[in-house]
Design brief:
Elements: H1 2-28, H2 32-41, H3 43-54, H4 64-79, E1 83-104, E2 107-115, E3 129-135, E4 153-157, H5 163-171, E5 176-180, E6 213-216, H6 218-229, E7 234-256, E8 261-271, H7 289-303, E9 308-315, H8 323-335, E10 340-347, E11 356-358, H9 378-389, H10 409-415, H11 424-429, E12 434-438, H12 453-465, H13 471-484, E13 506-516, E14 521-524, E15 529-537, E16 568-571, E17 577-583, E18 598-608, E19 614-618, E20 628-629, E21 635-644, E22 646-651, E23 663-671, E24 682-683, E25 694-699, E26 705-712, E27 719-725, E28 739-741, H14 745-766, H15 772-793, H16 797-814
Parallel strand pairs: 3-4, 4-5, 5-6, 8-9, 8-10, 10-12, 13-21, 22-28
Antiparallel strand pairs: 1-2, 1-7, 2-6, 3-7, 7-9, 11-12, 13-14, 13-17, 15-16, 15-18, 18-19, 18-20, 19-21, 22-25, 23-26, 24-25, 26-27
Helix pairs in contact: 2-13, 3-7, 3-12, 9-13, 14-15, 14-16, 15-16
Length: about 800
């Protein structure tokens, strides 16, 4: 009996050993140390690739440097792949060039001005701008004292944030703002200072206020600063033009055929373009680390052919709403080519030290349980490789369990970094298996002109060269295992375009039209600029929290796909049509800790005339269509209506008691004569929700317009009338294609509310009803308004502002 048990046990051990041998023999035959040595010996090549790419001044799509980088990478991939494929697509980009001419001490200077990202649609008034140049430092309200700024060109410190809007535009609209590169010491010093993305905070906004804004290098403007210090008068002339254009962009695909598993492929991808608040100054050195390693891996696998085929994909349009990735995934789905099983996106930064492997990022924020990583055998295999290779991940983790659903460490990582936007997310949204090899780090100079090679080289030395097993080597070894292990079996991907539980890779096709009063129907509009944003409702207030240089779309209310302009943008064709690929329907099933994600989409559109002014805008009147919508089909079709208009900008939309942005209860644009909603009208109803103290009304010239707002008390939450703005009961009027700025809006609010209160009280008096308290209040309001106007005439803006706010507060109490 014991002998039988012994032989049975022996037989089971032999069988188990055989199974184990079959499981691991292929892996044990592999030699990951070869790629480790290769990467380690070629780190200088990565430095060289990065040096070349960052020397191009800018790789923002549409710039000369971008097209140079495209040619460089294309030629490289031709030499180190079996076949190279191009995907050509177009992106709507703001393209422009400007110069400043000024005279100091009889000598004329011509310097380059760099455009800043647009305010929503608006690129600034076009044509020549001429005026006296003044300097306002940080742009706080006291720096404007004794200055008349209405017809001036204003120099303002870059780190002044949103003060150009908060105070400069509120007082009077200058001809242009020029942000000065930070500098050290006195104006006579030659030492300029870099700024980080933490300093990019409000220099551009999502609201289409058409105020020209530029950036100038300190050394190009210091002569003006010195002259102004001496009390000299300096006249400047700005010349140039900018416009929205559809420009060509390219994805570059290099194919290396596998030795044994030729019928399927793994995608290794990185983006090669860059971004900056100043598009013409965007070297993107640290940002190019991912594409640099990808090029090196191509070189290795061309010389050491993998078992499984590889698609190396250089993507572009990353900061334009991962546009290149969405186009790439769309073509994969449509053409059913390459049979890709896994999408690995290289999201590196030399500002970090270690590697995290994540399944979701902040673009779609799609952590749904519909991505079956465990059943797809991916997680178990990667964990096995980590053990075999003795690799530790970010935070000392020895497995990816916490980084991939249902683990939740990934959430803490990406929630702390607004730049955690992964091109692999598009593949995951479509039902594929996408992973980001991501290095958490501060990325301080991303999105600025100072992500240059010198800064990068120092971080590279500290966090990569000085580390024996750095994240580049770890990434390369894991990729080596994935493309060579025959036992790594990934089930067939069933791409999904629409799924009520898990979302999907949907398409929105639309048409921009105008309601034609003569025909009683809608006419298509070509060359309309279309902006798409997403309003996401999520439990626990998780979301695409956007900060830094990106428009502040508050996470409690409005969310936006992360891009350099806080939106995805397109331009309509000759038939008025546009298309957006790769949009997510609501993911109603969600996960255990994010039970559902509801996406509603917001469309705004306009047509800009030759002067750079908005002449057609989204119609919110009776003929409106598809302003907010949800996706309910694989291809969602929408129509969106514009109307011909002018615009009126109102500033200082704040809570006068606490100076905070109001929480809106009701906001109405009305005809000032009838107090009814006009047939045609528009407005930036999300501007206040996004945290900006400004509102833009779009109206027809024949309609006198007023604004009425109720807000919730910041203390009690109760709704109260915040303001009535009606231009002394006459209403505000504009002209087609012109933007009217209401200067000193805070004082106009006080005056208009006083007029309304006085008229209401006068009616009571006529009925024999009087109140001494109300009359005292009205007298006090009038006194404050009179004093505020006196202070304003004396250019004492602080005291004028304070007096007007007191009048405004008292008016609210009277009303």
């Amino acid at each position: 009996m014991y002998k039988k048990q012994f032989f049975l046990l022996l037989l089971m051990m032999i069988i188990f050993s055989s199974i184990l041998d079959n499981f691991s023999s292929h892996v044990l035959d592999l030699n990951p140390s070869s790629i480790k040595n290769f990467v380690n010996n070629n780190l200088n090549s990565i430095l060289n690739y990065t040096s070349i790419l960052s020397s191009l001044k800018s790789r923002v799509v549409g710039t000369n440097g971008y097209y140079q980088s495209y040619r460089y990478i294309y030629n490289f991939m031709k030499n180190f792949s079996d076949h190279v494929y191009l995907q050509n697509f177009t992106l709507a980009m703001p393209i422009g060039s400007f110069n400043l001419t000024y005279i100091v001490n009889g000598k004329a200077y011509h310097v380059k001005l760099y455009t800043i990202l647009p305010n929503g649609f608006s690129l600034g008034v076009q044509g020549k701008i001429e005026g006296e140049i003044i300097y306002v430092g940080t742009g706080e309200i006291n720096t404007y004292k004794d200055k008349d700024i209405g017809d001036k060109i204003i120099l303002i410190d870059f780190d002044s944030g949103i003060n150009w809007l908060r105070y400069g535009c509120t007082l009077s609209i200058p001809k242009a703002f020029i942000f000065i590169e930070p500098y050290e010491g006195e104006t006579q010093s030659n030492s300029s200072l870099p700024f980080t993305r933490k300093d990019v905070d409000g220099q551009y906004i999502s609201v289409p206020i058409n105020v020209p804004r530029f950036f100038v290098k300190y050394n190009d403007i210091k002569n003006v600063l010195i002259a102004l210090d001496k009390g000299e008068k300096v006249i400047g002339k700005i010349c140039g033009k900018s416009e929205w254009k559809l420009v060509n962009a390219f994805n570059i695909i290099g194919y290396i055929k596998g030795k044994t598993i030729t019928e399927e492929s793994i995608i290794i991808a990185a983006h090669y373009d860059s971004y900056s608040i100043i598009p013409e100054l965007s070297p993107g050195a640290d940002e190019s680390l991912g594409i640099s390693l990808m090029l090196l891996l191509m070189k290795y696998f061309r010389e050491n052919r993998p078992n499984r085929s590889i698609l190396f994909v250089a993507l572009s349009g990353h900061w334009e709403g991962i546009a290149g990735a969405r186009i790439f995934v769309k073509k994969i789905i449509d053409n059913k080519t390459f049979n890709p099983k896994l999408f690995i996106y290289l999201a590196f930064s030399s500002s970090g030290e270690d590697l995290a492997i994540l399944h979701a990022g902040r673009f779609y924020f799609n952590p749904t349980s519909g991505i079956e990583f465990y059943r797809a055998n991916i997680v178990d295999k990667i964990n096995y490789y980590l053990t075999l290779l003795r690799i530790k991940l970010y935070g000392g983790e020895s497995s990816v369990d916490n980084f991939i659903y249902p683990g939740y460490s990934w959430l803490n990582i990406i929630y702390g970094d607004p730049l955690a936007i992964f091109d692999s997310e598009a593949f995951t949204l479509a039902g594929g298996y996408g992973l980001a090899f991501y290095v958490p780090g501060p990325r301080l100079y991303w999105g600025t002109p100072y992500d240059n090679y010198n800064v990068f080289q120092e971080m590279f030395r500290r966090n990569i060269l000085d580390k024996e097993n750095n994240f580049l080597i770890k990434s390369a070894m894991i990729i080596y295992m994935l493309v060579n292990d025959p036992g790594f079996d990934i089930p067939k991907i069933n791409f999904r375009l629409y799924d009520t539980n898990y979302g999907g890779f949907s398409t929105v096709r639309g048409k921009i039209v105008i309601y034609n009063l003569s025909t009683g129907w809608y006419t298509p509009l070509s060359n309309a600029i279309v902006r798409l944003r997403v309003i996401a409702s999520m439990p626990n207030s998780f979301g695409l929290g956007i900060y830094g240089g990106i428009p502040k779309i508050k996470h409690e209310i409005v969310e936006g796909y992360y891009s350099t302009m806080g939106a995805i943008i397109n331009i309509t064709d000759k038939n008025g049509e546009f298309v957006f690929y790769g949009l997510s329907p609501s993911a109603l099933l969600g996960t255990d800790y994010l039970p559902s994600i509801e996406y509603r989409y917001l469309i705004e559109a306009c047509i800009i005339n030759s002067r750079g002014e908005i002449e057609y805008y989204t119609d919110l009147g009776v003929h409106r269509k598809d302003i907010e919508f949800t996706i309910k089909n694989p291809i969602e079709r929408v129509n969106h209506v514009l109307f011909r208009c002018g615009s009126i900008v109102l500033y200082s939309i704040i809570e006068p008691e606490v100076l905070s942005i109001p929480k809106i209860f009701i906001i109405e644009v009305r005809d000032a004569a009838s107090h009814m909603i006009p047939q045609f009208y528009g407005g930036t109803f999300y501007s206040i929700l996004e945290g900006y103290p400004v509102f833009v009304i779009f109206s027809q010239p024949n309609i006198p317009t007023e604004l009425f707002i109720k807000s919730r008390s910041p203390v009690t939450g109760e709704p109260r009338v915040l303001l009535i703005l009606n231009n002394n009961s006459y209403g505000f009027r504009t002209r087609y294609g012109y933007m009217i700025h209401v200067n000193y809006t805070f004082l106009q609010i006080a005056q208009d509310m006083y007029n309304v209160n006085l008229a209401r009280y006068s009616r009571l008096v006529r009925e024999g009803i009087r109140s001494g308290e109300i009359e005292d209040y009205l007298d006090g309001v009038n006194t404050y308004i009179v004093e505020a106007r006196k202070e304003l005439l004396s250019k004492k803006y602080v005291s004028s502002f304070v007096l007007a706010l007191e009048a405004w507060k008292m008016n609210r109490n009277i009303y």
